[in-house]
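Priority: low. Protein: Magnesium-protoporphyrin IX monomethyl ester [oxidative] cyclase. Input follows.
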Amino acid sequence: MVDSLKKPELEELRPGIKRPAQDTILTPRFYTTDFEEMAQMDISANEDELRAILEEFRTDYNRHHFVRTEEFNQSWDQIDGETRQLFIEFLERSCTAEFSGFLLYKELSRKLKDRSPVLAECFLLMSRDEARHAGFLNKAMADFGLQLDLGFLTESKNYTFFKPKFIFYATYLSEKIGYWRYITIYRHLEAHPEHRIYPIFRFFENWCQDENRHGDFFDAIMRSQPQFLNDWKARLWSRFFLLSVFATMYLNDIQRSGFYASLGLDARDYDIHVIRKTNETAGRVFPLILNVDHPKFFELMDEAAAANLKLMEANNSTASKPIKTLRQLPHIAKIAVNMLRLYLMKPIDTARLEGSVR
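Result:
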C-alpha cells in the first residue's frame, strides 16, 4: 500500500468556513438535466413498484435518526495531524456529494410537480433525506473547527449536464455504491469498536438504508424505460458508468489510504469489496457489468492509482506551471491507457447470469 500524500493546508473562505475543494475529475459533481424530457417519461410500465417505493419514502424510517447524541459533545483534538485533515476531507467530500443530490432532487421535484406527481414526490422526499445527510455531515465538520457554506457551494460549483438516462445511470450507481461503502464501514467498526474514532459511524447502518432505497427508486425508473437498458448503446454506457464510478472511488481512496488506516481498514481491500458488491448489485438492472474478477482488473486499477499518486506529487511540487504539466503528462497518459484497457475488457452479460433479476 502506498502511503497517503501529504496534503496542503486546508484553506478558509473566512474564519470557520472551509474553501470548497477545487473541482477535478475526481471530486463530487453537481448535475443538471433535461427537465422537459424527464417530465415526458411514461412510467406506466413500472408504476406500481414506483408507488410502493413512494410509500416507503413517505414512511420516513429515519425521521428521528439524525439527532446528535451527547457523545459528540467533547473535544476532538486527539484526532490531529494528517488524520485530522484526511477526516475533514472525508466529511467534506461526503457532505458535497449529499448536497449535490439534494439540489438535483429538489429541482426535479419542482419541475415535475405538475407533470409527473409520483416522480415529483419521490424526488422531493429523496431531497429531504439528502438534506439531512448533508446537514449532519456539515455539523460534524464543525466539530473540527470548519464548515462548508452550502449557499456559496450552490453558486460556485460547476454543474454538469446529463441527459435523463445518464442521470439515472450515475445516481443509481452513486446511491448503491454509497450503500456498500457505509454498510462495510459500519460492520467493520461493529466488529472493531476500538477503531471508531468518531461517533458519526454509529449512524451508518440506518444511513445506508436511505442510500439503498434511493438506488431502488432509480432501478425502478430505469426498468420503466426499457429503451434505456435494452439497446447496444445501453451496453456501452453501462460499462462506462460502472468503470467511471469504480475508478473514481479507487483512485480517491488509495490517495487517502491514511484515513482508512485510522479506521483499521486497508483502503485497497475495502474498495475491492465495495466494487464487487456494487457490480453484483448493478447486475440486477444493467445489461452488462464489469468482470471485476478478471486477473488483470485490479492490477490495472493499482497501476492507475499509483500513477494518480505521482500525478498529485507533480501537482503539489513547487515547479513552474509548464514544468508541472510536463511532469504530469506521462501519469495522465498511464491512467487513460489503463482506463481504456479496463473498458475494453470483456464484460459479463447479465442476461446470461443464472437467477438474474431484470
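The CA atoms of residues 112 and 119 lie 7 Å apart. Confidence is low (pLDDT under 50) at residues 1-6, 354-358.
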